[in-house]
Amino acid sequence: NHTDIDVTVENPRPWADHRGLNRAFRAGAMTIGLIAPLEGFDGPVPTMSNHIELIQQADRAGFSTLWVRDVPLLDPSFGGQVFDTWTYLGYLAARTENIALGTASVVLPLRHPLDTAKAATSVDQLSDGRFLLGVATGDRAVEFPAYNIDYQTRGARFRDTLAYLRTATERRFPLISSSLGTMEGTDLLPKPLHGRLPIFVTGRSQQQIEWIADNAEGWLFYTLPFEQQA
């Protein structure tokens, strides 16, 4: 619903006014989000029947966040999301009004950080600041050979990718020298509406808890027994 587009974001919006974060986290209250696809299905492939209508209903009903998985290739032992993560989120940004839109989670080692950064900041802009970036190392080992990426070193590649992404999205015409590439004299647009993207690390992602605390805004963890969750 916004018409004034500012792709360079010379004056970032206040972090305290972040629509996505405020939707997902409320002081003194619990919020409930959903993860796509919103259906129970037999086998590894969802039908995606009425998925837009269901998501719009969740938006109107006041659910906090809709999370979309990143599943590049079908592994019959996992299943789940079938649409491209970023195409799907761009579509959902146009078809929803208030619900926060998040990734749970983008498999960072399989993508170049500039591609992930460009897609993430685009969704951030097109959703008017409702985007939350969940990231992970990836746990479907079968996908890594297709990208010619070493599964065993995904933890280090995860750290390098996240550092590259943060620098490219948070600085103007950054100077980057990384094993993943170099940047000099160029800039990545659009920039995030609030100056940076809210990033959530999934599980341990082969990192120390202290590293996660220092490098992310939040933590996505798996379902645990209530006693352990406490």
Describe the structure.
With 230 residues, the chain is of the alpha/beta class. It has 8 helices and 8 strands, in the order αβαβαβαβααβββαβα. The protein has a 6-stranded parallel beta sheet with strand order 1-2-3-4-7-8. β2 (65-68), α3 (85-95) and β3 form a beta-alpha-beta unit. The protein is globular. The termini are far apart. The mean pLDDT is 94.
Helix and strand arrangement:
Elements: H1 19-24, E1 34-35, H2 51-61, E2 65-68, H3 85-95, E3 100-107, H4 113-126, E4 131-136, H5 144-147, H6 154-170, E5 176-178, E6 181-183, E7 199-202, H7 209-215, E8 218-220, H8 226-229
Parallel strand pairs: 1-2, 2-3, 3-4, 4-7, 7-8
Antiparallel strand pairs: 5-6
Helix pairs in contact: 3-4, 4-6
Provide a concise account of the structure shown.
The protein has helices at 19-24, 51-61, 85-95, 113-126, 144-147, 154-170, 209-215, 226-229, and strands at 34-35, 65-68, 100-107, 131-136, 176-178, 181-183, 199-202, 218-220.
Helix content: 25-40%
Task: Report Rg.
Answer: 17 Å
Structural class: alpha/beta
If helices are DSSP runs of H or I spanning 4 or more residues, what is the number of helices?
8
* Main sheet overview: 6 strands, parallel
Average of pLDDT: 94
Strand order of the largest sheet: 1-2-3-4-7-8
Shape: globular
Number of strands: 8
Low-confidence segments: none
What is the end-to-end distance?
A: 40 Å
- Proportion of strand residues: 5-15%
- SSE pattern: HEHEHEHEHHEEEHEH
Features:
single chain, 230 residues, alpha/beta, 6-stranded parallel sheet, 8 helices, 8 strands, globular
